[in-house]
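Researcher: I'm comparing several assemblies side by side, and this is the next one on my list. It has 1016 residues spread over two chains. Same procedure as the others: predict the full complex and return the structure.
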Amino acid sequence: MSVVATLAASPRESRTLSMKRQVELKNHLREIFHFRLRLAVGFAFALTLLAIVLLRLVYLQTVRHSYYQTLAESNRISIVPIVPGRGLIVDRNGIEMAHNYSGYTLEITPSKVADLEATLNSLGELISITAKDRKRFKKLMAENHDLGSVMIRNRLSDEEVARFAAQQYRFAGVEIKARLLRDYPYGDKAAHLLGFIGRINENDVAQLEEKELEGNYRGSDYIGKTGLEQSYETELHGVAGIEQVEVDSAGRAVRLLSRTAPVSGNTLVLSIDAKLQEIAEQAFGDYRGALVAIDPANGEVLAFVSRPGFDPTLFIDGIDTQSWDELNTSLDHPLINRALRGQYPSGSTIKPFMALAGLTYGTRSPARTISDPGYFTLPGSSHQYRDWKAGGHGSVDLFKSIVVSCDTYYYGLATELGIDNIFNFLSRFGFGKKTGIDLQDESSGLLPSAAWKMKRYKQIWYPGDTVSVGIGQGYSLVTPLQLAAATATIANNGVAHIPHLVKEIRSAGSNESRQVNNDVGVDLKLNPEHLALVQRAMAAVTQPGGTAVAASAGAPYHIAGKTGTAQVVAMKQGEKYDASKIDERHRDHAWFIAFAPAEQPKIAVVVLAENGGHGGGTAAPIARKVLDYYLLGKLPTPLKAPLAEKEVAHD
Amino acid sequence: MTKRQMWLRFSAHLDGQLTLGVGLLLLTSLLILFSASDANWGRVGGQMLNILVAFTGLWVVANLPLHYLMRTALPIYALGMLLLIGVALFGDISHGARRWLNLGVATIQPSELMKIGVPLMMAWYFEKHEATLTWKNYLIATGLLIVPVGLIARQPDLGTALLITASGFYVLFLAGLSWRIIGGLFVAAIASAPLLWTTLHDYQKHRIEMLFDPSQDALGKGYHTIQGMIAVGSGGIVGKGYMDGTQTHLDFLPERTTDFIFAVYSEEFGLIGNVILLAMYGFVIYRGFIITAGASTYFTRLMAGSITLTFATYAFVNMGMVSGILPVVGVPLPLISYGGTSMVTLLLGFGMLMSIETHQKLNKS
């Protein structure tokens, strides 16, 4: 018996005792029997699997054969996607800020062209093809994986279309296609807000596949890359239609069998006021910076500016290398969304919030005054933290501390509050956290704490660190958007809203629309008397004796505000500096936060002017133009040369 | 050495019948690849190279004596686990899943290694504890299976995870896991299905939903299933003829040289061709079972049985997916689909079967 023979041959077995061997042999035989039984079951299982497949195949290939035969043989149906029209973006008054127009593009199918270079050259005799067009064509061709057509020119004029059409027989594999093209009428004036669409690249494809959306993007060339175009991509894209076309044996379309119309993307109705946006952009002149205006009652963003802007249409069909280098290496960093991602020291604009913290924790009563010698020292230390005003402000209470922006007052207040209380209180206003606005890649700023410093620098928190946090310097950083949301919260009597840009989403076909924002606000539960005091002090900032008195000159309404100055400590990123510009770029950043009318705020606005010097001089006049238009409908007079403002030397 | 001696040396450890069955399937692969790739010799040549490399692996493994085979179990399993952990920590993300590990010189997919590593390790473990098997051993063996499967499922690569689970389960089954527990597991699996559903990724749920109504996403994932079924169904009894499949040659079929190659075959050779193909698979599986039945040690029995049953499962899953009775999971048709990795894994498995068969014979004589 073969099993016995095998066992006998095994050295392990031969070494065992003969008695025991008898028993083991028996067990072993039983084991073999059990195993073969199992194996038989396994074999039956495998056969069953094959039988299931066979049954299915018999069913498909005999019973259902004629059905599939019809689908495949007599009707060779090709499923052709129809790209939906992209949704519009309009402002709160219905003015279009992003729309589509039908235009003609010239496209080449490389696989059908024998000599590409020769074709390009003879095309160039008919239609202007610049070096930039050629570069872009090469880039697009490298990215083209589905062997489809590749664009060589867009925005053909009617004349160019006619000229090519007459000569088309000479160019096999070259054709004119009608496409819906995207246009941004406001150009660089809303580029950071709207963002732009661009060609779908490999990354986008991977993301679409992950979300199982690639079917809906079959035939689509573009996808939102930044700004609202990106964050509302699913709303704007729409649903692809399907055409079932019968094709002949060569694959040519012969007959349309059925058509499911595409559903155009939805229209985004923004809370932005396009005119206000334009005025705000222009008000910056040559300054770099950011402006965010918010309706305090509901968090609707009225203007959202980051200067300088850029031309978003450059990106739609792939930017050429030269333009890209210019934008990317520019000292002005036009591609950075400063309102959303720029992180700056808040400077003195933090003082109203610190004052509220002092009142809330009972560290400062309204009536308590300090005597300001022009500097502050920590107990047991001789280091002097200087006030911006040499000699100090004399006797200062909480109201005056905001009006004159007294540093000494806040050095002491911050020290007595301690970093933990400051952290807890300011984070209620949203500092150090993303606001949650409907744009992607928001920065969260930095609200320092002892735990943060230990994690980041492996150092304990020193009392000296707290002192500078009191006046918005030191480790703390804010984004213009954060500061705007926090300012709106003070204006709205302590009820915080999440800032948002899209008011409602309207279906393209029907007039159905739905509100996007269901935010009812979060009441920070601040004492109304404390709030009223801080609001009154901010209103006095723009009155004689305050730091921004020039900003409200002649205004028929009251402005509550606060100026700020952020020190530019060091150059960043090792930029190459133009010697003539060094001075200007070392200058402090100017802040102005405001809401108006002070008694019944309808708008809160935050302005940051990079290297603008002090807030009262450069930032406040920009804010004033925005307030004048929004509250009075008054258009700004052409920019005057900035006046020398003697009454405020700083802050 | 004469030519005859050389031939004898070469074929000493090749099992004749198994080589015949596998060879026929590989020839079919080249034949159908030529049609599926629109007469592209590059694809056919590539596949020949895959076969050559994989067959070299098969020959080497077939010539390894059994105790060498056993000795590889622990190192292969350990290496596989190490790589899987590496993937979880540093893997490249492709199509939203973390499956590949970039080693600088090459990117590898460690889950493929575990298709052999897991059953090998489990069979080795059972052999080691053969004399004193208790329920604890089964529990530990299950652990050896669950840990790598969990890592693979998390990548997420549900298809591979399920197939490795199957191969491990076959080892447990052949090792004599009590029928009561098997029944219990079966009931538990059915009962936990709704729970499992909630833990699936969206795209995984989507694929299962698509099975019941492919028209839901006719341009996306449903497209694969619809076009595959049209190809198979329209093939009819005799097929449309070699190189004449309209679904294939008018570009309707996606992934037609890899996961959906069975649709090409079905369309062109029809039900008759399918019966022949199933017969070839049946023959290879039958031979695998015969080798398993004659295997002398506990280790080789478990290993041979698991390899054979897993092979049958792969074929079933791919054909079931193309013909629309299983969801679309990325499983190639064994020995037919274009691709180097799966070819190597499969032929290494068959190399083990041959080693088990031929070294035993030598022992007997």
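Model: For your comparison table: The CA atoms of residues 342 and 615 of chain A lie 17 Å apart.
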